[in-house]
Design brief:
Protein name: Cytochrome P450 2C21-like isoform X1
Number of domains: 1
Binding site for heme: 435
CATH superfamily: Cytochrome P450
Keywords: Endoplasmic reticulum, Heme, Iron, Membrane, Metal-binding, Microsome, Monooxygenase, Oxidoreductase, Signal
Order of helices and strands: HHEEHEHHHHHHHHHHHHEEEEHHEEEE
Shape: globular
Oligomer: single chain
Membrane topology: Peripheral membrane protein
Structural class: alpha+beta
Signal peptide: 1-25
CATH architecture: Orthogonal Bundle
Strand order of the largest sheet: 1-2-7-4-3
CATH topology: Cytochrome p450
Number of helices: 17
CATH class: Mainly Alpha
């Protein structure tokens, strides 16, 4: 048969399937914009800023509505009340991971971030237990962060107050902290392997947040075979996987079952304990992806937050000066900041929370999925349906945060200047899929930022009012624009 005729028949079948799916779902899923065959609502969305498009649609369809990314229906939750009701009040039902083809291709239902079912439950439970045993949120991890922050100080001093791009330096700190947990070792900042790892992490964040990956996730069966940035992403990930596998092999050779040194050792011991269980979730393949999850989340997201945070402080030098004043008042200039100091530093705590709120690092989080057929409000949502959670709508809620588009630490301070918690603070998402490294991230942000400001004054290369803080990319993640600054020793 002529290839063209085959193509026409296939397209016709896809259109019929799409129309049938839409008809089947009509009257069951929440309302939303009418999708076109095959492409769904893609043409009605700004793929350069999905979060903004979602907020515009919410004005017409309310806090719970449906959009189609290609032929895939996705239920959107917009606003604190809808998000809380789903992720917190009905956490188990909304604890699935929605389909995200680019991550599915990388992870193949392994690890913690993109897996489902028993794989996710057992791997997450085990990982959290081991991280707690190793001191997550405790003094042992705090010491490692403090030590690494001082290495950063020494590296920044070598810039001699000259203009510099701190992108990689800010990535080395969280990367080495994660390495100490996973591999029990750190890299020197001049190590080419560390430089390559960090460069690939930053490149991956830009690629994953690009419009091209939005298209890949909507039409994976077509885009996957085209040339594009997804090829570079998968190549970079392969490098990371090979690096991790090498580390695992080194650990296997020197493993002492009675004396685990780090996360990999604990996982290998669990594998040995379950070696006769053919259904065991603890395999080398799962270990590679689990470590990749920890590596990526712990390095790329923290590095991006630090970089955006410093840019905001350059834009608002009066805020940076108040943080420095509080540091010198509570901690002084000689000893390192510690987590106990946080209680005495409400303004610094408010600034760190406002950085995370303002930058909105993961505007729509990663997609959730319902684990069973459910009735949500007046709608029926079938098992497996993807759920898109608008974290932007929570973090930028004008009722909770007056002037949400303004960077204002007062959003987290009461009338007496004390730190004020907010239920709307969800940069790490919420519920059963909340980021497993949330506690570590809090520690790193506080200790690294205070250490930098304790030792340096940040100087921009242009007038602060001329600094552009608009994201360079805003997709799955938010990426700050490129900039240089000067670190002036105090």
């Amino acid at each position: 048969m002529d290839p063209f005729i085959v193509l026409v028949i296939c397209l016709f079948c896809l259109i019929l399937l799409s129309l049938w799916n839409q008809r089947y779902a009509k009257g069951k899923l929440p309302p939303g914009p009418t999708p076109l065959p095959i492409v769904g609502n893609i043409l009605q969305l700004n793929i350069k800023n999905i979060s903004k498009s979602i907020s515009m649609l919410a004005k017409d369809y309310g806090p719970v509505f449906t959009v189609h990314f290609g032929m895939k229906p996705t239920v959107v939750l917009h606003g604190y009340e809808a998000v809380k009701e789903a992720l917190i009040d009905r956490a188990e039902e909304f604890s699935g991971r929605g389909i995200l083809p680019v991550f599915d291709k990388i992870c193949q239902n392994l690890g913690v971030v993109a897996s489902n079912g028993e794989t996710w439950k057992q791997t997450r439970r085990f990982s959290l237990m081991i991280l707690r045993n190793m001191g997550m949120g405790k003094k042992t991890i705090e010491d490692r962060i403090q030590e690494e922050a001082l290495y950063l100080v020494e590296a920044l001093k070598k810039t001699n107050g000259s203009p510099c791009d701190a992108t990689n330096l800010l990535g080395y700190v969280p990367c080495n902290v994660i390495c100490s947990i996973i591999f029990q070792n750190r890299f020197d900042y001049s190590d080419e392997k560390l430089v390559t790892l960090i460069n690939y992490f930053h490149e991956n964040v830009r690629i994953v947040s690009s419009p091209w990956i939005q298209l890949y996730d909507a039409f994976p069966f077509f885009i996957h075979y085209l040339p594009g940035s997804h090829k570079k992403l998968f190549k970079n990930i392969d490098y990371h996987k090979k690096f991790i596998l090498e580390k695992i092999k080194e650990h296997q050779k020197s493993l002492d079952l009675n004396n685990p040194r780090d996360f990999i050792d604990y996982f290998l011991i669990k594998m040995e304990q379950e070696k006769h269980n053919k259904q065991s979730e603890f395999t080398v393949e799962n270990l590679v992806i689990t470590v990749l999850d920890m590596f990526s989340a712990g390095t790329a997201t923290m590095s991006t937050t630090l970089r955006y945070g410093l840019l905001l402080l350059l834009k608002h030098p009066e805020i940076a000066a108040k943080v420095q004043e509080e540091i010198y008042c509570v901690v002084g200039r000689n000893r390192s900041c510690c987590m106990k100091d946080r209680r005495s530093m409400p303004y610094t705590e408010a600034v760190i929370h406002e950085i995370q709120r303002y930058i909105d690092l993961l505007p729509t989080s990663l997609p959730h999925a319902v684990t069973q057929d459910i009735q949500f409000r007046e709608y029926f949502i079938p098992k497996g349906t993807s759920i898109l959670v608008s974290l932007t709508s929570v973090l930028h809620d004008s009722k909770e945060f007056p002037n949400p588009q303004q960077f204002d630490p007062g959003h987290f301070l009461d009338e007496s200047g004390n730190f004020k918690k907010s239920y709307y603070f969800m940069p790490f998402s919420a519920g059963k899929r909340v980021c497993a490294g949330e506690g570590l991230a809090h520690m790193e942000l506080f200790l690294i930022l205070t250490t930098i400001l304790q030792h340096f004054t940040l100087k921009p290369l242009v007038d602060p009012k001329d600094i552009d803080i608009t994201p360079a990319v805003r997709g799955i993640g938010t990426v700050p624009p490129f900039y240089k600054l000067r670190f002036i020793p105090v």
